[in-house]
Amino acid sequence: MFHNLRNDLAAYNGDWSAQGFWVMVVYRFGCWRYGIKNIWQRKVFSLIYKILFKLIQILTGVELPCEVKIGQQFVIDHFGGIIISGYAQFGDNCRIRNGVVVGLAKISEPCAPIIGSNVDIGTGAKVLGRIKIGNDVIIGANAVVVKDVADGMIVAGIPAKVIGRTSK
After folding, report:
1. Which of 36, 60, 118, 151 sits between 20 and 30 A of 136, alpha carbons compared?
2. Relative orientation angle of helices 2-11 and 19-33, to the nearest 10 degrees
3. Strands 138-139, 144-145: parallel, antiparallel or unpaired by DSSP?
4. DSSP for 47-58?
């Protein structure tokens, strides 16, 4: 847990006051508690996690459950209105901004996007359903992504369409 927190702090340029970092601390704590073998101790830490999760949700407007699979250097650039489904997955070096939703397209189909590495998700974007977002992708502000996006693409619009390629 502490190795991940050091990496998270580095991703926020050492800024302990960054609200995105607070979210990551609670997320890492939630993941860490699953490794506790004693069931009674795990229940106590689970209660603490649930309280911290709700507190962070209220203070920052970010819902990031510990069931989400996140790589290294995950950055929440601006807080507020961010909802990420517990089924979602992120690669390394991903960045999201306020108003982003990564989640289910249909309640009856519990699956969320799998997002590659080096993905930048703009303000207000919605990434929904059983889709794959490739590596080195930029998703424009307010885009609604409901189809797979190949590596190295820039997408924008409603519904999102490819508008260019990244320079990588």
Report:
1. 60
2. 160
3. unpaired
4. HHHHHHHHHHHH
Task: Give the whole-angstrom CA distance, residue 123 versus residue 37.
Answer: 40
Q: Contact at 8 Å (CB) between 35 and 2?
A: no
- Rounded Cα distance between 95 and 115, Å, is 11
Q: Are the CB atoms for 154 and 163 separated by under 8 Å?
A: yes
The pTM of the full predicted model, rounded to 2 decimals, is 0.89
The length of the chain in residues reads: 168
Rounded to whole angstroms, the Cα distance separating 113 from 109 reads: 12
Residues 155, 158: Cα–Cα separation, whole Å? 10
Amino acid at 60: T
Q: What is the pLDDT of residues 32-72, one digit of tens each?
A: 999 999 999 999 999 999 999 999 999 999 999 999 999 99
